[in-house]
Specification:
Elements lengths: L10 E4 L5 H12 L3 E6 L3 H13 L4 E5 L10 H10 L4 E4 L14 H29 L3 E6 L12 H21 L4 E8 L2 E2 L24 E2 H12 L10 E4 L7 H5 L11
Parallel strand pairs: 1-2, 1-4, 2-3, 4-5, 5-6, 6-9, 7-8
Helix pairs in contact: 1-2, 1-6, 4-5
Amino acid sequence: MNAHSESPARVAVITGADSGIGRATAVRLAEQGMDIGITWHEDEEGARETAEEVRSHGRRAAVERMDLTDLPAAVDAVDRLADELGRIDVLVNNAGTGTATPFLDIGLDTVRQVLDVDLVGPFLCGQRAARRMIRQGDGGRIVNITSVHEHQPRVGAAPYCAAKGGLGLLTQVMALELAADRITVNAVAPGEIATPMTGQEDTDVTTEKRPGIPAGRPGDAREVAAVVAFLAGPDAAYVTGASWAVDGGMLRMGPQAGSHLESDSWRRP
């Protein structure tokens, strides 16, 4: 095969790829031969470090700032990255935020901020990416990073749970509507993962004890990235509209935890 007949490298755009799950996913997809578009909100240095890791695997990387509280303008970053890298084959909606505030104390501004970042932003990013994938004509992959709180509630996280639950059902609608264009859409629902968002950057998860999780420890961001990589790859062509929990069994513990709690401490965020 001569150089002129080779297919272009697949391109993945990953929002919030300056650290944690986003960075781990960027590196994993680069290892699988993809060029990577990276967005960041506050940590530009972290995004640049992710880009260097991607390039160390021989892949191209492009970086754009994205503030999902500034909608719809923020979503233009998806188009800029696709323009710079030549196309978009995979979108990973990873950027997110949360709160630990009792329901009765949350202000409207906070509610709107969380919903914009965790639900409306992914909605609009998904539109931009899907439209380009359809124009390209050869399908694509969209993976929405939700949470175990897509499926079960958490005290003190009302807007976060509402957004993640909404993103889970949005994933299913997108899967139905985009299937004819060979675009699969799935959710990945992490449990407690050792990342900066949970205050556990660079944590060795094997040394952390979590009696309430069947696996007995938090997860590693690379364990989430591995599932995203499967969904973004050719082996998952017949997988769409599903939510993949990566939680060490946490979701299976609902009734079990309820019967073993020994205090009312869970009532407080």
